[in-house]
Amino acid sequence: MEHLADLVDLYEYRVEDLAAGRTPKGGKRALLQLRAFLIQTRLPGPLAKRFRQADARFKALRQSPNSPPPVETPSPDFPAQALEHLEEPTPKPSPLRAIALKVWHLLAEREAKARAKDLLTGRREELRLIHAFLQNYLEYREKETFKRDFNLSRFHPTHPIPSLSDSLMDLEDPKVAEALVMEFLETALHLPQDLPLPPEETRTYIRRFLNRILEWDDAYGLPPKRDLMPLKKALEEAKRLGASALEIARLEERLRKEAQEERRRELLLEEERRRFRVALEKVIALLNLLPTPQGETPWPRVPEPGQGEESLLTLPLRPGRIPLGPLTLSQVEGTWHLGLGGEDYVLEDTLVIPWEDLEVLAVRERDLLHLRLEARSGIRLYELLAEGRMLALLLSPNQDYIYLRLLRALYARLKGEFSPQAFGPELAEKYRQAPWEALQDFARKVLELALKRLGGADPTPLLKEVGQALGQEREALVLAEALREYLGRRPPTRETLGGEVHLLSIGAEPLALKVGQTVLSLRPRNAPSGDPQEDVLYVGQAGEVPQRLKDLLVYRLSEGTVILAREGRRLAYLVMENP
Prior knowledge:
Blueprint: H1 2-19, H2 28-40, H3 45-63, H4 80-83, H5 95-119, H6 125-140, H7 174-189, H8 191-194, H9 202-215, H10 229-240, H11 245-285, E1 307-309, E2 312-316, E3 322-324, E4 327-332, E5 335-340, E6 343-346, E7 350-355, E8 358-365, E9 368-375, H12 381-394, H13 398-415, H14 427-433, H15 436-454, H16 460-470, H17 473-488, E10 502-505, E11 511-515, E12 518-525, E13 536-540, E14 547-549, E15 552-556, E16 561-567, E17 570-576
Antiparallel strand pairs: 1-2, 2-9, 3-4, 4-5, 5-6, 7-8, 8-9, 10-17, 11-12, 12-13, 13-14, 15-16, 16-17
């Protein structure tokens, strides 16, 4: 093990020499021989990770146009399996991938705006911590040790956390907060380009970086640590030399006051660290907005050129005037325009056009154009669908409505009134007898109250405790994960909802939705007042009593669960598997 560690160290040093433009010790042939040996060797986990990181840098150097002269070709007596990774063609970025990244940027900006609003309260620890991270990271990135310091052992913070009243920052301005959140996400997104680091390690690296800042005593703007040793020595010296009682008392009083001030500083430091560690978790949670595998947001769906799906279309740009439903695509004097409602918009890289209660997102990549319809950020349809996904789990009758019973038990635990006997399987009989509309309203109310009591904290510890008491720990962890996802993805997007969101307009005529082999009928009934906002919509299938859709309805079928959300004349729905 120690011998292998030395070889990995040697490989790192030789790659470092190559990066600096120096001939590696032993020559370039020795570097390739060592690399071939390590490729064939079964390295333990930590050493394998270090080797992969150094090797990624080696490959980047070979592919970079500014890299040193290419390493000489190894001799032909090397085993083929050891050399098969030496020449890897650089993959060209896919235009569809580039479009998906631009779409992610547009959606991330919307979400950053919403998240920033939540951070503009209290002492704004999250925004201040993000600012300190950006300053320290951007400075450290320029240093020579940055590229190899994956565990940040050589990193020493230089920029403290700004105070709430910092004159250089206006932390009460929503635009400043939004820009900070977006810059943080952009920096995290490009981290694997700054470092030879696997994308999956982004969250771990940033958490380690933030922790290094919080471990720094000078990060919080507190007075420097008092050195009590000179006073103690002066007091001991005075006693040894037989100083007067008054002089000794004066030194003792001074030492006592200094010790009190130092203790006060330590308490303040401890409290600041505690508050910023809570903020750190919220900052790390923002990384969920990154696309997979760095974060938890699925890559936006982009159909192949010439193909379209509901609310999604990708097409090649061709000369002429092209009608696209309510949109018109045209080229005037070499400039592309997108027309909607009698107004033309210049089509550049990205364009967002408001249209009724929707937005048209247009993304261009060379000669390709991607169009998609999204609900406006202010509309509640996507939020209702996200709530409906949670309700679908809670209303699942599996194991005697175990998830609804667990949520009720969590709420009781949060109030301090938890008794396992009160949430046993016998409750399921009451749920089975309740009308579906009443049961759904009940589940929504329990969810609202539990989340209000929870206050954004991680539900896992309490749910695990409740699950153990009820003998359902595995189901409790499933519910905890669903709650974390529901809380962590606000505002939701088409991708976080599963990508299969359908948008419809409600008119005077019935609508038909086909789900598998089942056809659901949506029949509107006009309100006596004539106000379309008060119109009633009934959902059902042949031979069954229809259910009323107010703003949200979870409709269970054997083929899956249909989540329907309504706001005025606009209807959104998605189909998910039964829990």
